[in-house]
Amino acid sequence: MSKLEKYLAKAQEPVQRQTGSVSIDGDTWQIRELTFSESRQCFKLAEDATGRFDTFRYNDVRIVKATEHDFPWNSIDLLKAYKAKDKYDLPVKLFEGNAAGYQALLDKVNEVNAKVKSEQEVVEDLKNSFEPTENQATSVGHSSTDEDDQTN
């Protein structure tokens, strides 16, 4: 099987995600693990117009992304009722009078996603896993062993 065939087949496979649930005010909230691309989106959506990172928005975005399969964050009625500018503005407004409920939801999102690596962690893992080989390229068209042979 070629690489292309392998990844085409992989695209059709269902993604297995870790899940969890938490009870808040008698309601069960279903939380799912974020994919790598969803995790990246959370970082991007947490930046303001100047590129400054907003930790509070990051937490709200992660809550929405981890629960949107179970809760209608995009409901126009819900957005209007809470005067939210977008679905990522809703978690803090929804739990305004229930900080413990918000914290329980955030804790479960963190727990379910504890094994999801950030982009930086993935990059660091790749850097650390790189082991130079004997024929590592030193310049275009030459390997370190080729240069050694030419100097002898």
Q: How many whole angstroms does the radius of gyration measure? A: 23 Å
Provide the succession of SSEs: HEEHHHHHHEEH
Query: What percent strand?
Result: 5-15%
| Total DSSP helices | 8
User: What average pLDDT do the residues reach?
Assistant: 84
Unreliably modeled segments: 133-152
Task: Name the shape in a single word.
Answer: globular
Helix content: 40-55%
SS class: mainly alpha
Distance from N terminus to C terminus (CA atoms, Å) equals 42 Å
The biggest beta sheet is recorded as: 2 strands, antiparallel
Arrangement of strands in the largest sheet:
1-2
Q: How many E strands?
A: 4
Question: What does this 3D model show about the protein?
Answer:
With 152 residues, the chain is mainly alpha-helical. Helices cover 51% and strands 11% of the residues. It contains eight helices and four strands; from the N terminus they run αββααααααββα. The strands form two sheets. Strands 1-2 form a two-stranded antiparallel sheet. A two-stranded antiparallel ribbon has the order 3-4. Helix 2 (36-45) runs antiparallel to helix 3. Mean pLDDT is 84; it is low at 133-152.
